[in-house]
Amino acid sequence: MFDGPEPIYVQIARMIRAQVLAGELAEEEQVMSTTQFATTFRINPATAAKAFTGLVDEGVLYKRRGLGMFVAPGARERLLDEHRKAYFDEVLAPALAQADLLGISTDELVSYVLGTNGHRPTTTTEES
Amino acid sequence: MTPAPFGARLDDVVVRFGAQRRLTAEGSTIKDEGGTALDGVTLDLRPGVITGILGRNGAGKSTLLSLLAAFNRPTEGTVRVGAGDLLEEPWENPWVTANVQFVRESGDLMDDERVSETFKYYADLRPYWDADLAGRLLDTFEIQPRKKPTQLSRGKRSAVGATIGLAARAPLTILDEVYLGMDAPTRYAFYDEILADYAEHPRTILLSSHLVEEVERLFEDVVVLHRGRVLLAEPAEEMQSRGFSLTGPVAAVDELARGRRELHRQRLGATVQVTLEGAPDDGATAGARAAGVEIGSLPLQDLFVRLTQDGGSGASSTAAEAGTSAREGRR
């Protein structure tokens, strides 16, 4: 868990954002406490706290005094919006660059997307 | 009630051991050379955080820690321990010694007394001793308080030491290689207890260990000692950003790694994992993605081995081998 190159707090924040995005964490739902985070993932509580501070600044979480951290209302919508914007640059562009490298033509890509190439893009897990 | 955590400051601290005469089996005397355990250490230890004290055998870790607990005094330089702006010399200072719990690898247990008797002694000694926590930890470590330390295995004796260290709730808690002899499940239980109790009762914890991979995420700050000097003292996060790893096909990884100092290399068939110094720039990140190379975090162990390797400049195979064998030994 949390083996990426970024600091662990960045990875924790990303995990929570992903959970909100996927609807696993509903709005107004309570998030694990820093203590729970620390003991569950065996990390320093300050690392978890730092992730929470960042998410509060982003408006994904908010703090209820004495109770803990909760998912902010409208957090999912905002995240969806941001991720949609980032999708083309961060997900699709590298995939297309890789296709270019492998000599896959635009026609092939288009027919793949349209599902007219014998593939069913929604269910296949083709190597990119 | 949680007391204010203690910080510490060392200035130009030198600790030398005097030359000693020793009698040999043949009856003649020989002179042992005195050694320098700490050689000009200047260091700030932040209050309220968990700091990792790392170093190879004989680096001066235990000597440094014993100064803070007034088990020893410096030959030169000053040591100050305390809360807020009130920092005092630990030596023969009841306020400091009552508030510093130093658990050594030996455990410092009363061998011919029951564990419960040792605990009574600590209950008198430590103003914030929590008897409930002590009892609960003994249950966790499956130790009967009726037993005497001599009846316990090495690992269980270490667990008694760990229990004392946590139950004392001292504003400065020093755990010096307390894990020795503990099996892996016990060690992880110990780490969990440290984190859980620290989160509830924030205090300063200094933790020395050779099992860097197991404990690195517990640390907020890290100090690396080598041959009696401080090599590095900084937040763990900064230390983490001193390098990164690349995993993927050999050719692609070598291409991306070119011109960077290599800390560690591990090969598995056609796949290689290298640990590199520095931060991946945007070009490297994009290049790695395109070439199917995964970028990962810096294992602190690799950096530690590299830093404390003598005379080494540039990546030598010794560092790589040491890192590999240390890892394999643990898994």
Automatic annotation (TrEMBL), chain A:
Annotated GO molecular function terms are: DNA binding; DNA-binding transcription factor activity
**Gene3D superfamilies in UniProt:** Winged helix-like DNA-binding domain superfamily/Winged helix DNA-binding domain
Q: Which SUPFAM superfamilies match?
A: Winged helix' DNA-binding domain
Alphabetized, the UniProt keywords read:
DNA-binding, Transcription, Transcription regulation
> Which PROSITE patterns does the entry link to?
HTH_GNTR (PS50949)
Segments forming domain HTH gntR-type = 6-74
Entry's InterPro entries? Answer: Tscrpt_reg_HTH_GntR, WH-like_DNA-bd_sf, WH_DNA-bd_sf
- Key word Transcription present: yes
The protein in question is named DNA-binding transcriptional regulator YhcF, GntR family
Which species does this protein come from? Krasilnikoviella flava
From TrEMBL, chain B:
Presence of the UniProt keyword Oxidoreductase in the record: no
Instruction: Using the UniProt annotation, give all residue ranges assigned to the region (Disordered).
Output: 309-331
Residue span(s) of domain ABC transporter: 8-252
Species: Krasilnikoviella flava
A GO molecular function term, named singly, is: ATP binding
Q: What keywords appear on the UniProt entry?
A: ATP-binding, Nucleotide-binding, Transport
Feature: compositional bias, Low complexity: 315-331
Q: Which InterPro entries match?
A: AAA+_ATPase, ABC_transporter-like_ATP-bd, ABC_Transporter_VariousFunc, P-loop_NTPase
Q: Under what name is this protein listed?
A: ABC-2 type transport system ATP-binding protein
The answer on whether this UniProt entry bears the keyword Nucleotide-binding reads yes
- PROSITE patterns tied to this protein: ABC_TRANSPORTER_2
